[in-house]
Amino acid sequence: MSDPIKVFKAKMIRTMARNTPEATHVAVRDGRILAVGSEADCATWGDIVVDTRFEDKVLMPGFVEAHGHAMEGTVWNDLFLGYFKRTAPDGSIEGGLKDIEAVVARLQAHEATMTDPDAPLIAWGFDPIYFDGARMSREHLDRVSTTRPILVTHASFHLINVNTLVLERADMLGQTNVEGILRDADGQITGELQEMAAMSMAARAVGATGALRGIDAANLRTFGKAAVNAGVTTSADLHQSMTDEVVAAYQTATAEADFPVRMVPALGAIQWSVKDGIERALALKKQGNDKLHLGLVKIMTDGSIQGFTGRLKWPGYHNGAPNGLWNLPPASLKEMVKAYSAAGLQMHLHVNGDQASEFIIDVLTEALTEHPFPDHRHTLQHCQMADAAQFAKMKALGISANLFANHIFYWGEQHYALTMGPDRARRMDACGTALAHGVQMSIHSDVPVTPLNPLFTAWCAANRITSAGRVLGPQECIPVEEALKAVTSGAAYQLKLDHLVGTIEVGKFADFAVLDSDPLSVDAIDLRKVKVLGTVLGGEWQPSNVPADQGYAPDVMLPDVLELA
Amino acid sequence: MTGGAIIPVTVIGGFLGSGKTTLVNRILGASRSRTAVLVNDFGEINVDAALIRSDDGLTMELSGGCICCSMAEGIGPAIFRAIESNPDEILIEASGVGEPRRVAEFALLDRRLKLDMVITLANAVELSAQLDDPLIGDTVARQFDGADLVVLNHVDAASPAQMATARAALRRIAPGRAIAETSRAELPLELLSATTLSILSAPQSAPIAHDEVFFRTRLETHHSFERTAFEAALNALPATLLRLKGWVAIDGEPTVMLLQYVAGRWELTASDDPGSGTRLVGIATAADLPLARLLGAETVAL
Lengths: 565, 302
What we know:
The complex is a heterodimer.
Chain A: E1 5-14, E2 22-29, E3 32-37, H1 39-43, E4 48-51, E5 58-61, E6 63-65, H2 72-75, E7 79-80, E8 85-87, E9 93-95, H3 100-113, E10 121-126, H4 138-142, E11 150-154, E12 159-162, H5 164-169, E13 181-183, E14 189-194, H6 195-206, H7 217-230, E15 232-240, H8 244-255, E16 262-268, H9 274-285, E17 288-289, E18 292-293, E19 296-300, H10 330-342, E20 347-351, H11 354-370, E21 379-382, H12 388-397, E22 400-403, H13 406-419, H14 422-426, H15 431-436, E23 441-443, H16 454-463, H17 480-494, E24 512-515, E25 532-537, E26 540-543, H18 561-564
Chain B: E1 7-14, H1 20-30, E2 35-40, E3 59-62, H2 75-84, E4 89-93, H3 100-109, E5 113-123, H4 127-132, H5 137-142, E6 149-153, H6 160-173, E7 178-181, H7 189-192, E8 215-221, H8 227-235, E9 241-248, E10 257-262, E11 265-270, E12 278-284, H9 291-295
Parallel strand pairs in B: 1-4, 1-5, 2-3, 2-4, 5-6, 6-7
Antiparallel strand pairs in B: 8-12, 9-10, 9-12, 10-11
């Protein structure tokens, strides 16, 4: 006779499944869902013991982030300097620095806590795009320290700021004719560096390249904390080298009983020859465990839209910036995509601009015609500029879309004014058009590019409010229920894990997000205020690290939002 | 830092199929110096990469990194590794979509390196169609920015009409740059060698390559140059002069000075050469370059 069956009682269980969409009890055995419905439904399986800790809480399927990066577990080793507040994995709130003086003050305060006088001060997430043209210079950073190297990476990852000491150590002060070392109107070196040469030379002088490198088990544990805080129980890590070292780190972390999230790392195809990458991905597919799902492949095509490196169709960037960059020649990308598809490997394809998405749709048309691949679930990632014509083709080919809904809040104003212009900005990340065309869809954060928080991502897709309070393209807003599907069953489908996670149904893992209120009962505008208290993973409670009385992050300050909405 | 000699860096750019790997192999095959070579290898895609000799421990393959994380991966760390291998020269094959001048910035920035030459190849058969392709046209065009030498390659396979359009395209996207036409990236080694003064001892017949593509130019004179005027003259030399090496007599200097000029970048350093008088040899893509007049020395013959 086995132990009694554990049954969680909740105020409301939103199963996100067609069968039994609402319930009050869920029974768990061996980490899986045995029954969902009423207490009586659960009791038909035998002796039960009811756990009432969630009886005034709401359960949903654990959220699934289909486009995140475990790098979130490494970036917090450095100081965050973002414009909007962000929750760190340990639950503290960082950022919210609204002008350069606030950034300097934060750096000064952090510098004062550093004990090793020679250690470099490395910071990330600095985003002067919100500062009305004000730039940070080395004079600002020299006020923080003239004896300690300081290196601040911008949110775009395309620029860094350094203090004079770093310029001296990298031997840059006397340099001329190097485009990557920026100067002010008087020809003085400002301490802003761009392009890979200048940036990597500075990072090397500081010994700071490590922070952006590979992943280890400790980083993964930190990522696990971030996931719990956001209600995420399954997350993609959508670009990894998948070297033996990385796979070993994954195996170590996920084998730990208390590791709190299922991980789905994708092999970055660009880091392998096509032949070796395919062999590697096929071999990885056979490995893994309940918390480690291997075999996904990531293809990089263009850059980013806010970095002006996305590949755009006519008429290009609104401010006249030249068209963006390909990671590989299109002909090489085509060979690569066709080879992986022919090998039966599912691909997640990074396409930001509409030329990149159109190109990949055309390539997949050819690939799937030459080598049919039933249920391929190839997914266009970001896919921010796809229009109705592209979604129609995606539907016809069975291609999924994972749209970057958070962009509407974080960079919507920049897209409106600089990158796209008003009309194209209004149809960016067009969740409404995707659904209207029946394209299978998810939405994502691309953490650490934007914060990991699926409820906030759903808020973005449902409300499309920019950081300035503008509703950007109300026609593309989607109902809350669709947005919640996108971050649960929709994302699970794209990771080919929908038989295991994404809804609360019998046989799936007992993975839940524990919420303080019901996201399907609040107004769409209040979705982001639904609080995540933690997760249940395989039937085990994982409390959030965020203090109960902490405010919301990001700190959305929108005086006119309600009026606009 | 080992305190070793400054390492010259050659950057070879050009779109897929322009002949970059052929040129890399040609240089490696003929060079007698220890050359570290950084190549892009995507296995089956870049089949030419298999031709690159990799038995000397100095060949480094550049794996692609995503654009967003280029700080941590890709070419930077590979260049630093190459420096540590203490080579005589470094040869970098930019990726098929890379911009050679951005790669060249490493050589401008790192004091252990000096930029020797940036060479961008074009495929004479395909250039025009590539430039018209909205997917890649701008990428191809950008690769010519900052090139010291543009090599229009595969001319043997191009029809007269293709040659005409390719030449016209280069006039538009690479105006004023030195242009050489080749069939299999056949550039004279003495043009490419960054480490030796070999051109000084080479036979003096001109032209030096097959199809009257490169021309040697010489200057031997007892004229002693006034330093400021000579430096100004160097800065004004035409783009068609790719390399100029040798000894120069400068007013007030006890011995002749060593001049090493590559595509507009030059160094004038003290030398222990016992000879006297100015002896310079250059390589240009134009015939009959009036070197004496350009340097302001035509009045005094040796």
